[in-house]
Design brief:
Blueprint: E1 5-8, H1 13-26, E2 31-35, H2 41-44, E3 49-51, H3 57-67, E4 71-74, H4 80-85, H5 87-106, E5 112-114, E6 117-118, H6 142-161, E7 164-166, E8 168-170, E9 172-174, H7 187-197, E10 200-203, E11 211-215, H8 216-228, E12 240-241, E13 245-247, H9 249-257, E14 264-267, H10 272-277, H11 286-292, H12 300-315
Parallel strand pairs: 1-2, 1-4, 2-3, 4-5, 5-7, 6-8, 8-12, 9-11, 10-14
Antiparallel strand pairs: 11-13
Helix pairs in contact: 1-8, 5-6, 7-9, 7-12
The structure holds 2-amino-3-ketobutyric acid.
């Protein structure tokens, strides 16, 4: 029997591309996109769409019953930078939405959950290079705290109630279709847009700030792969480390200059610098590679070619 999928937060950066991918795999009639508003017309107009408030259990349950949903991808969240401006809102949204879907699975309304975690679960006392799967985690952002606590709850619901919840610690995700919103790694998307529209970018992170990053196509492939993996192959029920590349603003600017010779970058670090400084520079994702054959395809060079080609057509 085919899966019936609900994506909560389908209008966002990752949710939108996941919607298109899952529709291509499972069929338009089996993938229901939802969000709190009509915030992305490409998604809204591309198939079944419902208004769902991730913080309202009744709103999610109504949709689950209406479409006989068995699998939920919970992509709604407040990210690191916005979370520092609205700490309690970030806590409420990120935690209540997770509890709603975990409890739906515990009550057997649904069978399977995907919930994204983040490199933000790590903190200043975490080893910075090749950060291991199991290590010190003392996040200093509200977003990171919600993701770390969320991971503990996912594992708890798996252990105690047999809830099939699967999770990945996404690094910064770079894409050209939908803009990210409110993250610390957003600079790595904005820079390509500004390179093409203005020939100049003012970076809110300093030139040597190295962070783990990934191109959207790899992030979507990883998400599909972990959800398809046989349950008995998954040894981690908190969240898997996941990696593709690491670079600094200076590295990405140099790569862009290979295509746009007179591109200029300047550096004006703001409050996001402190967040970035608390995160790892690179991630050891060998457990994901062993357990479910994870393998990335895009490095900085290949991603930059793709970003500049796709955005070049958009701005032409
Ligand atoms: C953010 O910057 O907050 C996110 C993340 C790394 O989870 N992109």
């Amino acid at each position: 029997m085919s899966q019936k999928i609900l994506i909560i937060g389908a209008c966002g950066q990752i949710g939108s591309e996941l919607t298109f991918k899952l529709r291509s795999i499972h069929g338009d009639e089996n993938v229901i996109a939802s969000d709190i508003g009509y915030n992305n017309l490409d998604v809204v107009n591309s198939g079944l769409f419902e208004i769902v408030d991730a913080q309202d259990y009744g709103s999610i349950l109504h949709c689950v019953e209406k479409y006989r949903i068995d699998t939920i991808y919970l992509m709604a969240a407040m990210l690191s930078a916005t979370g520092e401006k609205f700490p309690m809102k970030a806590w409420d949204l990120n935690m209540s939405s997770l509890f709603h879907v975990l409890n739906l699975a515990k009550a057997k309304f649904i069978d399977k959950i995907f919930w994204p975690s983040s490199i933000a679960v790590f903190g200043p006392t975490t080893p910075k290079h090749d950060t291991p799967q199991h290590t010190v985690m003392a996040p200093t952002t509200v977003y990171g705290i919600t993701k770390q606590v969320g991971e503990r709850w996912c594992e708890y619901y798996f252990d105690k109630y047999g809830v099939d919840v699967r999770s990945i610690r996404y690094p910064g995700i770079i894409s050209w279709k939908t803009m990210p919103g409110g993250g610390t790694t957003d600079y790595a998307v904005e820079i390509y847009h500004r390179a093409l529209t203005d020939g100049h970018y003012s970076s809110f992170l300093s030139e040597d700030t190295e962070l783990p990053m990934m191109f959207m196509d790899d992030a979507i492939d990883a998400t599909v792969q972990i959800m398809d993996a046989p349950a008995n192959q998954l040894t981690i029920r908190s969240s898997y480390n996941l990696a593709a590349m690491s670079f600094t603003p200076k590295d990405i600017a140099a790569e862009i200059q290979n295509h746009i010779k007179d591109f200029i970058i300047t550096y004006n670090p703001d409050f996001r610098q402190q967040i970035a400084d608390s995160w790892p520079k690179s991630i050891d994702d060998s457990v994901a590679r062993t357990d479910w054959n994870w393998n990335h395809k895009f490095d900085l060079k290949k991603m930059s070619e793709e970003m500049l080609t796709q955005l070049g057509e958009k701005y032409a």
